[in-house]
Amino acid sequence: MKQDLSNFRKVYQKNVINFKELNNPYNLFDQWFNLAKKDRLIEEVNAMVLSTIGKDKYPKGRVVLLKKIDYDGFVFFSNYDSEKGISIEKNNKVSLLFFWPSQQRQIIIKGTVNKTSSSFSDDYFSKRPFKSQISAILSNQSEVIESYSKLKNEMDLLVKENKNKVLKRPKNWGGYIVTPFEFEFWQGRPDRLHQRVMFFFDKSKKWKFNILSP
Ligand SMILES: Cc1cc2nc3c(=O)[nH]c(=O)nc-3n(C[C@H](O)[C@H](O)[C@H](O)COP(=O)(O)O)c2cc1C
Protein backbone atom coordinates (compact mmCIF):
# COMPACT_ATOMS: atom_id res chain seq x y z
CA MET A 1 0.00 0.00 0.00
CA LYS A 2 1.32 3.38 -0.96
CA GLN A 3 -0.34 6.79 -1.10
CA ASP A 4 1.17 10.20 -1.66
CA LEU A 5 -1.04 12.82 0.00
CA SER A 6 1.38 15.74 -0.21
CA ASN A 7 -0.97 17.62 -2.55
CA PHE A 8 -3.98 17.29 -0.27
CA ARG A 9 -4.60 20.87 0.76
CA LYS A 10 -7.61 22.66 2.09
CA VAL A 11 -8.26 26.35 2.55
CA TYR A 12 -9.64 27.09 6.00
CA GLN A 13 -11.74 30.22 6.12
CA LYS A 14 -15.26 29.37 7.23
CA ASN A 15 -15.37 30.71 10.74
CA VAL A 16 -13.48 33.04 13.00
CA ILE A 17 -12.97 33.36 16.76
CA ASN A 18 -13.66 36.81 18.13
CA PHE A 19 -11.16 36.91 21.02
CA LYS A 20 -12.86 39.96 22.54
CA GLU A 21 -16.06 38.00 23.14
CA LEU A 22 -14.49 35.13 25.07
CA ASN A 23 -15.44 34.61 28.70
CA ASN A 24 -15.85 31.00 29.69
CA PRO A 25 -15.28 27.75 27.78
CA TYR A 26 -18.78 26.40 28.35
CA ASN A 27 -20.31 29.33 26.48
CA LEU A 28 -17.96 28.86 23.54
CA PHE A 29 -18.52 25.09 23.56
CA ASP A 30 -22.27 25.65 23.58
CA GLN A 31 -22.05 28.14 20.74
CA TRP A 32 -19.92 25.81 18.58
CA PHE A 33 -21.97 22.72 19.46
CA ASN A 34 -25.25 24.45 18.56
CA LEU A 35 -23.86 25.50 15.18
CA ALA A 36 -22.49 21.99 14.57
CA LYS A 37 -25.90 20.48 15.45
CA LYS A 38 -27.47 22.50 12.64
CA ASP A 39 -24.76 21.57 10.13
CA ARG A 40 -26.14 18.91 7.79
CA LEU A 41 -22.64 17.82 6.86
CA ILE A 42 -22.07 16.59 10.42
CA GLU A 43 -23.71 13.20 10.87
CA GLU A 44 -22.93 12.60 14.51
CA VAL A 45 -22.20 15.85 16.23
CA ASN A 46 -22.01 14.09 19.61
CA ALA A 47 -19.31 11.64 18.51
CA MET A 48 -16.07 12.37 20.35
CA VAL A 49 -12.72 10.67 20.72
CA LEU A 50 -12.06 9.56 24.27
CA SER A 51 -8.36 9.02 24.95
CA THR A 52 -7.08 7.10 27.92
CA ILE A 53 -3.72 5.80 29.05
CA GLY A 54 -3.72 2.03 29.12
CA LYS A 55 -2.18 -0.55 31.45
CA ASP A 56 0.63 -0.77 28.89
CA LYS A 57 1.16 3.02 29.34
CA TYR A 58 0.21 3.69 25.72
CA PRO A 59 -2.48 6.25 24.93
CA LYS A 60 -5.54 4.97 23.07
CA GLY A 61 -8.34 6.98 21.50
CA ARG A 62 -11.73 5.66 20.45
CA VAL A 63 -15.05 7.21 19.54
CA VAL A 64 -17.85 7.30 22.11
CA LEU A 65 -21.12 9.21 22.05
CA LEU A 66 -21.69 12.23 24.25
CA LYS A 67 -25.09 11.86 25.92
CA LYS A 68 -25.29 14.82 28.28
CA ILE A 69 -23.47 18.10 28.88
CA ASP A 70 -23.82 20.49 31.76
CA TYR A 71 -21.54 22.39 34.15
CA ASP A 72 -20.80 19.11 35.99
CA GLY A 73 -19.28 17.60 32.90
CA PHE A 74 -19.56 15.50 29.76
CA VAL A 75 -21.37 12.16 30.03
CA PHE A 76 -20.98 9.01 27.92
CA PHE A 77 -21.91 5.36 28.49
CA SER A 78 -19.80 2.27 28.20
CA ASN A 79 -18.85 -1.09 29.64
CA TYR A 80 -16.90 -0.71 32.90
CA ASP A 81 -14.91 -3.91 32.21
CA SER A 82 -13.87 -2.89 28.69
CA GLU A 83 -10.30 -1.93 27.85
CA LYS A 84 -11.17 1.74 28.42
CA GLY A 85 -12.92 0.84 31.67
CA ILE A 86 -9.81 -0.89 32.97
CA SER A 87 -7.63 2.02 31.82
CA ILE A 88 -9.87 4.52 33.60
CA GLU A 89 -9.79 2.43 36.78
CA LYS A 90 -5.99 2.85 36.84
CA ASN A 91 -5.80 6.43 35.58
CA ASN A 92 -8.82 8.67 35.40
CA LYS A 93 -7.07 11.48 33.55
CA VAL A 94 -8.57 11.52 30.06
CA SER A 95 -9.09 13.69 27.04
CA LEU A 96 -12.08 14.23 24.77
CA LEU A 97 -11.74 15.43 21.20
CA PHE A 98 -14.40 16.75 18.85
CA PHE A 99 -13.51 17.29 15.18
CA TRP A 100 -16.09 18.92 12.92
CA PRO A 101 -14.38 19.11 9.52
CA SER A 102 -17.17 21.04 7.81
CA GLN A 103 -16.83 23.74 10.48
CA GLN A 104 -13.02 23.53 10.38
CA ARG A 105 -13.11 23.23 14.13
CA GLN A 106 -11.56 21.03 16.78
CA ILE A 107 -12.12 21.05 20.54
CA ILE A 108 -9.85 19.16 22.93
CA ILE A 109 -10.85 18.79 26.57
CA LYS A 110 -8.70 17.43 29.36
CA GLY A 111 -10.33 16.27 32.54
CA THR A 112 -10.88 13.60 35.11
CA VAL A 113 -13.48 10.90 34.64
CA ASN A 114 -15.68 9.14 37.19
CA LYS A 115 -18.61 6.77 37.07
CA THR A 116 -22.03 8.42 37.19
CA SER A 117 -24.40 7.39 39.99
CA SER A 118 -26.14 4.01 39.65
CA SER A 119 -29.54 5.69 39.58
CA PHE A 120 -28.46 7.93 36.68
CA SER A 121 -27.15 4.90 34.75
CA ASP A 122 -30.31 2.89 35.55
CA ASP A 123 -32.46 5.69 34.27
CA TYR A 124 -30.55 5.98 30.98
CA PHE A 125 -30.46 2.19 30.52
CA SER A 126 -34.23 1.96 30.98
CA LYS A 127 -34.71 4.43 28.11
CA ARG A 128 -32.52 2.54 25.63
CA PRO A 129 -34.19 0.50 22.88
CA PHE A 130 -34.80 -3.14 23.93
CA LYS A 131 -32.19 -4.64 21.59
CA SER A 132 -29.56 -2.11 22.68
CA GLN A 133 -30.24 -3.18 26.26
CA ILE A 134 -29.79 -6.82 25.29
CA SER A 135 -26.58 -5.98 23.47
CA ALA A 136 -25.19 -4.21 26.56
CA ILE A 137 -26.06 -7.27 28.66
CA LEU A 138 -24.54 -9.72 26.18
CA SER A 139 -21.36 -7.96 25.14
CA ASN A 140 -18.23 -8.44 27.21
CA GLN A 141 -16.83 -5.41 25.46
CA SER A 142 -13.21 -5.68 24.28
CA GLU A 143 -12.93 -9.41 24.99
CA VAL A 144 -11.95 -11.88 22.26
CA ILE A 145 -14.94 -13.83 20.90
CA GLU A 146 -15.05 -17.17 19.13
CA SER A 147 -17.06 -15.94 16.17
CA TYR A 148 -19.46 -13.16 15.21
CA SER A 149 -22.13 -15.67 14.20
CA LYS A 150 -22.04 -17.26 17.67
CA LEU A 151 -22.52 -13.82 19.22
CA LYS A 152 -25.41 -13.14 16.87
CA ASN A 153 -27.08 -16.43 17.82
CA GLU A 154 -26.69 -15.62 21.50
CA MET A 155 -28.27 -12.24 20.86
CA ASP A 156 -31.25 -13.80 19.04
CA LEU A 157 -31.74 -16.23 21.91
CA LEU A 158 -31.63 -13.50 24.57
CA VAL A 159 -34.08 -11.41 22.54
CA LYS A 160 -36.50 -14.37 22.43
CA GLU A 161 -36.10 -15.26 26.10
CA ASN A 162 -36.60 -11.71 27.33
CA LYS A 163 -39.46 -10.60 25.14
CA ASN A 164 -41.85 -8.34 27.09
CA LYS A 165 -39.57 -8.34 30.13
CA VAL A 166 -38.24 -5.22 31.83
CA LEU A 167 -34.48 -5.58 31.76
CA LYS A 168 -32.13 -4.58 34.54
CA ARG A 169 -28.92 -2.69 33.79
CA PRO A 170 -25.90 -4.96 34.06
CA LYS A 171 -23.65 -3.72 36.88
CA ASN A 172 -20.65 -3.50 34.55
CA TRP A 173 -22.36 -1.08 32.18
CA GLY A 174 -23.13 2.56 32.88
CA GLY A 175 -22.24 6.18 32.62
CA TYR A 176 -19.01 8.08 32.95
CA ILE A 177 -18.72 11.80 33.51
CA VAL A 178 -15.67 13.82 32.48
CA THR A 179 -15.04 16.94 34.57
CA PRO A 180 -12.95 19.32 32.47
CA PHE A 181 -10.05 21.43 33.71
CA GLU A 182 -8.81 22.52 30.30
CA PHE A 183 -10.48 23.29 26.94
CA GLU A 184 -8.63 24.01 23.73
CA PHE A 185 -10.54 25.44 20.77
CA TRP A 186 -9.01 25.35 17.29
CA GLN A 187 -10.39 27.30 14.38
CA GLY A 188 -8.92 26.73 10.92
CA ARG A 189 -7.90 30.00 9.22
CA PRO A 190 -6.31 30.92 5.88
CA ASP A 191 -2.59 30.45 5.24
CA ARG A 192 -2.29 28.08 8.20
CA LEU A 193 -2.59 31.01 10.61
CA HIS A 194 -5.13 29.12 12.64
CA GLN A 195 -6.68 30.41 15.85
CA ARG A 196 -6.22 28.53 19.11
CA VAL A 197 -7.63 29.39 22.51
CA MET A 198 -6.76 27.48 25.64
CA PHE A 199 -9.02 27.86 28.68
CA PHE A 200 -7.68 26.70 32.03
CA PHE A 201 -8.78 26.77 35.64
CA ASP A 202 -6.50 29.20 37.51
CA LYS A 203 -5.65 29.22 41.23
CA SER A 204 -8.70 31.32 42.07
CA LYS A 205 -10.86 28.59 40.47
CA LYS A 206 -11.86 30.89 37.65
CA TRP A 207 -11.63 30.14 33.94
CA LYS A 208 -8.85 32.09 32.23
CA PHE A 209 -7.60 31.79 28.69
CA ASN A 210 -4.48 32.12 26.62
CA ILE A 211 -4.25 32.51 22.88
CA LEU A 212 -1.84 29.96 21.44
CA SER A 213 0.36 30.08 18.41
CA PRO A 214 -0.96 27.87 15.62
C1 LIG B 1 -19.73 6.39 16.00
C2 LIG B 1 -19.29 5.52 17.14
C3 LIG B 1 -19.95 5.62 18.35
C4 LIG B 1 -19.56 4.82 19.43
N1 LIG B 1 -20.16 5.01 20.64
C5 LIG B 1 -19.75 4.30 21.70
C6 LIG B 1 -20.24 4.56 23.01
O1 LIG B 1 -21.05 5.48 23.24
N2 LIG B 1 -19.81 3.79 24.03
C7 LIG B 1 -18.89 2.79 23.84
O2 LIG B 1 -18.55 2.12 24.80
N3 LIG B 1 -18.36 2.54 22.64
C8 LIG B 1 -18.75 3.27 21.56
N4 LIG B 1 -18.20 3.05 20.32
C9 LIG B 1 -17.22 1.97 20.17
C10 LIG B 1 -15.85 2.42 20.68
O3 LIG B 1 -15.22 3.26 19.75
C11 LIG B 1 -14.94 1.23 21.03
O4 LIG B 1 -14.81 0.36 19.93
C12 LIG B 1 -15.47 0.44 22.22
O5 LIG B 1 -15.95 1.28 23.25
C13 LIG B 1 -14.38 -0.45 22.80
O6 LIG B 1 -13.28 0.34 23.18
P1 LIG B 1 -12.15 -0.19 24.18
O7 LIG B 1 -11.86 -1.62 23.80
O8 LIG B 1 -11.00 0.72 23.98
O9 LIG B 1 -12.73 -0.12 25.57
C14 LIG B 1 -18.53 3.86 19.25
C15 LIG B 1 -17.86 3.79 18.03
C16 LIG B 1 -18.22 4.63 17.00
C17 LIG B 1 -17.43 4.57 15.72
Account of the protein in words:
By secondary structure, the chain is of the alpha+beta class. The protein has one domain (19-128, 171-212): Pnp Oxidase, Chain A. Helices cover 25% and strands 33% of the residues. The chain has five helices and nine strands; from the N terminus they run αββββαββαααβββ. Strands 1, 2, 3, 4, 5, 6, 7, 8 and 9 form a nine-stranded antiparallel sheet that branches. A hairpin with a 7-residue loop joins strand 7 (173-187) and strand 8. Helix 4 crosses helix 5 (148-161). The longest helix is centred in the N-terminal third of the chain and has 14 residues, at 25-38. The model has no long low-confidence stretch (mean pLDDT 97). The structure holds flavin mononucleotide. Flavin mononucleotide is lined by residues 44, 47, 60, 62-65, 76-79, 82-84, 141-142.
In short:
This protein is of the alpha+beta class.
